[in-house]
Amino acid sequence: MKKYWLILMCFIAILLAACSDKESEGGGEKSGDAVEYKLVYSGEIKTLNYLKTAETNEFAVAANLVDGLIEYDKYGIVKPGLATEWSSNEDATVWTFKLREGVKWVTHDGEEYADVVAQDFVDGLAYVLDAKNESATSWIATVVKNGDAFYNGEITDFSQVGVKAIDEHTLEYTLEAPAPYFLSMLNYVCFFPVNGEFIAEKGDSFGTTRENFLYNGAYILDKFEPQNQRVLVKNETYWDKENVFIDRIRYKYNKEAATVAPELFLRGEVDYAGIPSSILDEWFNDEEKKSLVRQSKTDFYSYFYALNFDPQFDAEFEPENWKVAVNNKDFRKSLFHALDRESAMLTLEPYNPTALLKNTITPKNFVDVDGVDYTQLEPLKDISNNDSFNKDLALEYKEKALAALTGKATFPVKVLMPYNSGVPDWANRSQVIEQQVENLLGADYVDIILEPGPSTGFLSEVRRPGKFALLEANWGPDYADPSTYTDPFTEGGTYNKPELAEGYADENGKSKYQNLVDAAKAEIDPAKRYQLFAEAEAFLIDEAFVIPYAVGTSGGVGYVASKLNPFEAQYSPFGVTAEKYKGQHLLDKPMSNDEFKDALAQWETERAEALAK
């Protein structure tokens, strides 16, 4: 048995002793002795049901209300959450967790409801894998033995699924195949606990109000008034409340939040604001304002442009003509090489746009094999190290596409490209792309049509129903394996249905990309596994099913004014850790950009040392 917990606990003790004098002291607005953090938002959440949603703004709230088995420290080192220790067998197919005793579920008014026990994790997974509940994260949970079979109705006895409460405080998972990265998956909402009695009693109303919800996390939802406000208050029964330094988090709704936030910040009405590129020069050229604004910290969200092979938009935008065009590889490649990503990125990062660009779906520094970064494995290496924007190639592929599609498609091809109307930089970026691509390829070849989408429910109303031809989309990793970035494009995945592309079916009836991913998943040896995933991802990009674009930034904006220190936050490329406020203080004054750069360099050095240990 591999014993992780003893080494881990020793490391944490050393780390805390070494870093205790580097913690920021709390500032911010106080009500009496309460520290309050204030924000304004426009994207409303539709549910608190963390076992069902896959939308970031929804599970970001739940991450502060419910704890899972593990957490991460500010350097990305795994540490105990509701599990105090864990172990796995030699091939990483059986994982055993010892739970922390005395943790309570409480109601919306802070009254104790029940102890948190191992069965709560069994009940949570039972909900996620019950197809009638339509959990958007069930596909992740099928890593557990018989999870997929139960979800698809091939077996009906949940006791055959690989999750078991050995006793009140011992939990065991048995996996479908070896998964040495399984620990990282537990940071995602589909593996969170739920009190089975409570969710059975509430049924479909679970997560619809703050009353129809149980809390075991750092905060309780004190107010939940959609399109008005939501307020989180510190959970006084929380097992680790001494590490919760912000007492109240107040979100105020404003449909123009992204536009008004900078002014509200200057007036002291909010403690965080994204600073759009349209006013960035003004802030940096103002003696008072320039000390308030800094760069955002980058994250591991991957941004790309998806080309939709199953268009479901209105007839006026000619979906059938788009299907003819997008199924021609030369047409796709003309778009692939015509998109000037650096010009587009200027709308988010006007000073150093290339720093955020990437040429692959999987970002650099996510995983490596024997010290070699995944993106540097062949044949992904050539893609990773070369800019896709190439005017000559774009025009060359245009001519090939015109020759092949004459008499089959109507030109110009209408390219419906929606954007979230609640994100100013996204709107600006869409306009840049429209003008740049049409100017290069010709408005007689493509007609890019911009359409403002809703600020609330954009994913469910636009992206998931396929109401687009070309769309800026993103994906964040759920666990530490390349499959987390390849899976969204497989059959039944979240995105643009590349399995429907014509001419790519293999003899077994599956798409070539699906077979490449399946072969990679079947390989256990990490070096061979990652090599096969690199081949699958290279195929996806080389066929221009997607156009990789950039890495994400915290909050989706390039520059912010914030009273939070980003280097105190729990850090992890995957799961919901980064959404937690636990462990963070409010600063007396915002961090300037120079202060941010110095702090980033120090954090990167300290993180490298922590990972090495």
TrEMBL record:
Signal peptide boundaries: 1-17
InterPro entries in alphabetical order: Peptide/Ni-bd (IPR030678), SBP_5 (IPR039424), SBP_5_CS (IPR023765), SBP_5_dom (IPR000914)
A biological process term (GO) from this entry: peptide transport
Classification via Pfam families: SBP_bac_5
Domain of life according to the entry: Bacteria
Keywords: Signal, Transport
Topology in the lipid bilayer: Lipid-anchor
Subcellular location: Cell membrane
CC terms in the record's Gene Ontology section: ATP-binding cassette (ABC) transporter complex; periplasmic space
One Gene Ontology molecular-function label: peptide transmembrane transporter activity
Domain Solute-binding protein family span(s) in chain numbering: 78-495
PANTHER family per the UniProt record, alphabetical: PERIPLASMIC BINDING COMPONENT OF ABC TRANSPORTER (PTHR30290), PERIPLASMIC OLIGOPEPTIDE-BINDING PROTEIN-RELATED (PTHR30290:SF10)
Similarity section: Belongs to the bacterial solute-binding protein 5 family.
This protein's name: Peptide ABC transporter substrate-binding protein
